[in-house]
Specification:
CATH class: Alpha Beta
Mean pLDDT: 96
Low-confidence stretches: none
Order of helices and strands: EEEHHHEHHEHEHHHEHEH
Shape: globular
CATH architecture: 3-Layer(aba) Sandwich
Number of domains: 1
Largest sheet: 8 strands, mixed
Oligomer: single chain
Number of strands: 8
Number of helices: 11
Length: 243
């Protein structure tokens, strides 16, 4: 069962779309790749790859337009605006998308699993670390976590508080306490266009703060592409929904 919802976000100053697949199960927010829209994961077979979990009622999949990622890749606006948009996108996910998911669940405030590949993995890990009050776990597949290069190596508070490699090392207090109760699964191949070093850097930053995480190296036969992520995602969702 598929539904689509679009609204005008005051935070993003533009429309945003959320798509849902499934009827019952644990809510899973799947971020698209950098330039993707909410339907990208269906076009590339990720929804079909999870069809067994959807049919069994173990998960409900949600996806959202990659508004900040589209601006990041196109560089169609000044760098300061693009960094602002990244922070606003994460705020939109927390303040608008998550409540929409909870409303779709009949008003149940169930913690959401986040996941994504490449820049989608960055977004999945970032929102978990920034908002551990509403997210249960993150699955980062073939993650690209050092995103400063997409912003011409510029810096701003917007970028700092959006990028976990920057803000996680300084976390303390209740946010860190809550994050330490969450789980991060980080998977990467070593084939074409993969950089598992990014995954290890993210894991090191989390581990230094006592945040539970695991790195799975899938080896050189797995490339930075959708066929890899179609294998990864159902395996990790099955693991998390069994625990």
């Amino acid at each position: 069962m598929k539904t689509t919802q679009t609204w005008s976000s005051s935070r993003l100053q533009q429309d945003i779309t959320v798509v849902r697949w499934g009827t019952f199960g644990k809510p899973v927010l799947v971020f698209p790749s950098a330039g993707g829209d909410a339907n990208e994961i269906e076009r590339n077979g990720l929804v079909d790859a999870c069809s067994g979990l959807l049919a069994e009622g173990k998960v409900k999949l949600y996806s959202v337009d990659s508004v900040a990622g589209q601006a990041m890749i196109s560089k169609s606006a000044p760098v300061g605006h693009r960094m602002w948009l990244l922070s606003q996108f994460q705020e939109c996910v927390r303040r608008e998308v998550v409540p929409a998911i909870h409303a779709d669940l009949g008003g149940q405030a169930i913690d959401v699993i986040t996941t994504g590949a490449s820049i989608g993995a960055f977004n999945a890990v970032a929102v978990l670390c920034r908002y551990p009050d509403v997210f249960a776990a993150a699955i980062g597949m073939s993650g690209t976590y050092r995103i400063e290069r997409f912003y011409d190596e510029a810096w701003s508070e917007d970028l700092f508080f959006s990028a976990p490699l920057q803000f996680v090392p300084g976390l303390d207090g209740p946010q860190l306490d809550q994050l330490r109760q969450r789980q991060v699964l980080l998977a990467s191949g070593e084939g074409a266009f993969e950089d598992i070093g990014e995954t290890w850097r993210m894991a090191a930053a989390l581990g230094a703060q006592g945040v539970p995480n695991r790195v799975d190296n899938w080896g050189p036969q797995w490339e930075h592409d959708w066929h890899t992520w179609r294998q990864m995602l159902p395996q990790y969702l099955d693991e998390l929904t069994r625990s």
